[in-house]
Amino acid sequence: MNKRVPFFTKYKLSTFAVLASLLLASSAFAATQLITLTNGKGDVVYEEKKFEKSMIPDHTKEKQLRSLKAQGLAQDLLQPGQAAAFYMAGDDTEGELYIRRGPGFGFTDAASLRGELKQSGALILDTLQSKYDFATGSLTYNSDPLTEQNEAELTAQLAQEARKSKEGYAMKSLNVSKESWSMILTYKGEGQTILVQPMRLNEKLTIHLPEESSAETISADGVDMLYSLYPSGSQGIRFIHNIPGSEYHIVYYIEATKGVAKEELLAIAKAYLQ
Predict the structure, then answer these.
(1) What mean pLDDT, rounded, does the chain reach?
(2) Each residue of 112-140: pLDDT tens digit?
(3) Could you give the C-alpha distances from 238 to 137, 195, 251, 268, in angstroms and in order?
(4) C-alpha dihedral (104, 108, 111, 117), degrees to nearest 10
(5) Which helix (H) or strand (E) holds 143?
């Protein structure tokens, strides 16, 4: 039986809060490059940059509020598996276009999730280290990317509609690709929690951090990994899995609570290299 239901749980562990901020990140943010990971071709597909607030003076409170409102509308109006463009109108000529996804699909067993993502290159395990059992999973598909021309045309169209609307916004549904997705998987056992976040992408992922990264690069079975120890005592590890014969790759991030040893976290990560 497929136990797939809408998934609304919000996680609060260190780096997952940073990943959520990707919705606000853009290439216009000026920052200093800190950490990178490459794919099998040697291309940089993951990088961390320090967020420099002073370099974006136009990031006003009003823009932040519009962004939050767009996210709220997405959660209220979109179903799992859907995505849309929202234009939020401001005063006079102000306003922005936001691409937002609906809630994720929720899973309570690993088998159903494997069935959903078969032949995607994702490894979804029932158990980690024979003691952390699969508890929950959330899967969200990404929308098809827009070209600069398509985005400009869509912005112009929705801006006009938003300014005529009493609600101050306009939206348009976007095509969703099952080729690109992100997941959050939870494993529990012995009083500990392991979070696994795979993201299947064919482009570079950039994360803007509030401060300089303390990650150290370690090598496991010839694969570079970024290991971080957080002030809370939890630990995180990130690495790239190359999908043979595909232009896509998977960025894995695994985080463990304080009671899990570094060696065990590394062993969990190695399991995903098989």
Answers:
(1) 86
(2) 999 999 989 999 999 999 999 999 999 99
(3) 19, 12, 7, 12
(4) 0
(5) strand 132-143
Which residues touch 247 (CB under 8 Å, ≥6 apart)? Answer: 202
Contact, 238 vs 46, CB < 8 A? Answer: yes
Environment class of residue 47 by beta-carbon count within 10 Å: exposed (0-12), middle (13-18) or buried (19+)?
Answer: middle
17-64 residue pLDDT tens: 334 333 333 333 333 446 899 999 999 999 988 877 665 556 688 888
Nearest to residue 101, comparing CAs of 160, 182, 200? 182
Tokens representing 93?
A: 């000529």
d(CA 218, CA 227) in angstroms, rounded, equals 7
Distance, CA of 187 to CA of 196 (rounded, Å): 8
| pLDDT value of position 25 | 35
**The tokens of 97 are what?**
């276009």
Residue with tokens 């979070």: 195
